[in-house]
Each structure stands twice: as C-alpha cells, then as structure tokens.
Amino acid sequence: MTVPQGKGMSSAAGGRRKRVLVTGGAGYIGSHVVRQLGEQGYEVLVYDNLSTGNDWAVLMGELVVGDLADSDQLRTVMDNFRPDAVIHFAAFIEVGESVRNPLKYFRNNSANALNLLESCRKCGVGALIFSSTAAVYGIPRENPVCEEAPLAPINPYGASKAMTERFLADLAFADDGFRYVSLRYFNVASADPQGRIGQAYRNPTHLITRALKTALGLFPRLEIFGTDYPTPDGTCVRDYIHVEDLAAAHLAALSHLFGGGSSDVFNCGYGQGYSVREVVKAVKEVTGIDFPVVESPRREGDPPVLIAANEKILRGLSWRPLYDDLRLIIQGAWDWEKTYLEKMRN
Ligand code: UDP
C-alpha cells in the first residue's frame, strides 16, 4: 500500500522512512494511530490477533495476524520488519471483566507485555509507546489527578497496566538503549472524522457507545451504574477525550523519543469532567432520541471521579487538543454508530 509522504519520517542516516510496529493496531485506538502514522509517512506494521480488532480497520501499512503470547512469531516479525519503535496497544480493557477474571488480564496485559519487551530488546528496538490508563490511579486523592500521584489501582485492569508501567521504568533504568513513553488514557470516545473507523467491539461496555446503541434501539435501555457516589449528582465523573486527539498524542510521543527525549509518563485528557447523567443528557440532545434509562447498582471497580491534569502533556509534548467538546465527541460517535450499523447489515 502506498502511503502519502509526510514530514519528519526519514532517519538522518539513510533517509529511509521510520518503521513503527503497532501491536493491537486493528483495534479502536490503535487503528486511529495507524491511520495517522500512515498519513505522516511512517512505515507501519500491525501485529494483532484480531480477538477484538478488525482487519478492515487497518487503513495503512501491513497487518500480520499474530498473538503476543507467541514469542517465536513475534520475534520473526520483528527480525524481518526491524522497527525503529513499537507502539503497544494489544490488551484487554474492561474493568468489570477484569474483576471477574483477573488472571485473563494479568496474562494478556502484563505477561504478554513482557514477551514484547524481551523481543524488543533482542531486536534492538529502543523506543516504545505504551497505552496505559487512568485506572492506574485507583481512587485519586485529588482531581484533576497529576502524573506524580501514587499508583493505587482498585481493579485488575488498572493493576495489569500499572505492572507494565513498572516493567518499562525498570527496563529503561537498567538499559540506556531503551526509552519509553506511557500515555495514561482517560475516557476515550468518538471516531475518525471521515467515518472510516470507530469503535467496533462485539460487546461494547463504554458509556457513550452503550448510550448511542440504546438510542439506535440495539439495547432496550441504558443502565446508570450507581447513583450514590460522592459526586454532585451521585453518578461517576469522567474526562472524555476524542480518539483523534488521543491518537495525535501518540505521534507527538513518538517524535519526542525520535528527537532524543527521555522516558516519561503523560496523562491524556482535557482536564474537564462530566457525570454519567450529564453524558446521557448530551447523548439525548445530540441524537434527538429520548431512550429509556434506568438506575442500577454500582459496577464493581469504578472510581467515583477521574479527571486528568494535563499541564504536563501540554508542556512536554508538541500536542494541542483539537476536539475538546463533549457534544462534538458524541456527534462523531453517533455518526460512526449509524455507519457501523449499516456496515454490519450489509
Ligand atoms: N457506565 C454506566 N452505564 C453503562 C456504561 C458505563 O453507567 O452502560 C458508567 C460506568 O459505571 C462509569 C462511567 O459510565 O462510571 C464510564 O464507564 P466506561 O465503561 O465508559 O469507562 P471506564 O471509566 O470504565 O473506563
């Protein structure tokens, strides 16, 4: 596949395009990053087992179907592709499921990350971007929460990601030839503005997606999980970030490492929180559909409030949010949900 030539993708030495291996690049966030990498002129190889990803979502570069548990295949792929950097997305992401099945999360999100790091070191890959999460903070003492806050996850999902952050920090400390950036995502939503890719989970659990699918009549009602939290309206508060802005943060982190920047950790959010009730109200306004909503007990593993302090990423990376507007985020997600429904029907 031919990708447009972008700026800043050639190595100083040979002028060849920088190569980036993206694990989980067929998934929701990964596919947006892959598309932006291709648009910027990087050479991209996606390594994905398609357990939750989709081959049609890989719009740029090449897709190799493989599992991180398969060290031999991973090693062969890396030896052949010789990446300059790795971006690591491949992981499970559901808080509730992680509480019910913790070993599944530690196996895939932590143990398989070790496989990847070992392969990186054997193949001489010295730069890695890691898809981490605000769930590493658990219930932060302060909101907005900054990167220096203690890591105290309250569910196995957050713990599995915090563990991988620890692997990265210790490896970078031990090995001068290895640098990384961990990006701690807050709540990611919306879709490619051109409607080519978006969230396509078989069993979506995220609030905005569930609400939109309820508006489309795919679920009979939306449940609000917990109305007795210590928040202004009793429901959980989250910081919703547009997937395009989040994807751009990965490219900014990559430029940081290619430019000789040191290992670091950055929150990815807008610094503003919305309650579940506020999101539901906004979804009803954007869609113009008054779908049924019921109040249900709390979901296990949910912290009451998670809002990003984002001064560090604004200062440390060349990144500026372009889609910082809840209604814009929901509108993009709504456009995508309608497109996706058509796609599934055809
Ligand atoms: N939530 C809800 N109903 C749903 C899905 C989510 O009330 O159908 C709540 C959830 O309990 C949490 C917030 O919405 O308080 C955001 O959850 P989501 O799963 O979207 O993201 P998370 O914060 O778990 O990463």
Structure description:
The chain has ten helices and 14 strands. The chain is an alpha/beta fold and 346 residues long. It has two domains: 13-190 and 240-268, Rossmann fold (3-Layer(aba) Sandwich); 207-238 and 271-341, UDP-galactose 4-epimerase, domain 1 (Alpha-Beta Complex), CATH 3.90.25. Strands 3-2-1-4-5-6-11 form a seven-stranded parallel beta sheet, with helices on both faces. Strands 12-9-14 form a three-stranded mixed beta sheet. The radius of gyration is 19 Å and the shape is globular. The chain starts with 18 loop residues before the first strand and ends with a helix. The model is unreliable at 1-8 (pLDDT under 50). The chain binds uridine-5'-diphosphate. Uridine-5'-diphosphate (UDP) binds at residues 95, 187, 205-207, 210, 222-225, 236, 238, 276, 299, 302.
Bound molecules: uridine-5'-diphosphate
User: Class of the largest domain, according to the CATH hierarchy?
Assistant: Alpha Beta
What's the story with the biggest beta sheet? 7 strands, parallel
Q: What is the strand tally?
A: 14
CATH architectural group of the largest domain: 3-Layer(aba) Sandwich
Topology at a glance:
Layout: E1 19-23, H1 28-39, E2 43-48, E3 62-65, H2 71-81, E4 85-88, H3 95-100, H4 102-122, E5 127-133, H5 156-174, E6 179-185, E7 187-189, H6 207-215, E8 222-225, E9 237-238, E10 240-242, H7 243-258, E11 264-268, E12 274-275, H8 276-287, E13 293-296, E14 305-306, H9 311-316, H10 326-345
Parallel strand pairs: 1-2, 1-4, 2-3, 4-5, 5-6, 6-11, 7-10, 8-13, 9-14
Antiparallel strand pairs: 9-12
Bound molecules: uridine-5'-diphosphate.
Uridine-5'-diphosphate binds near residues 205, 206, 210, 222 and 302.
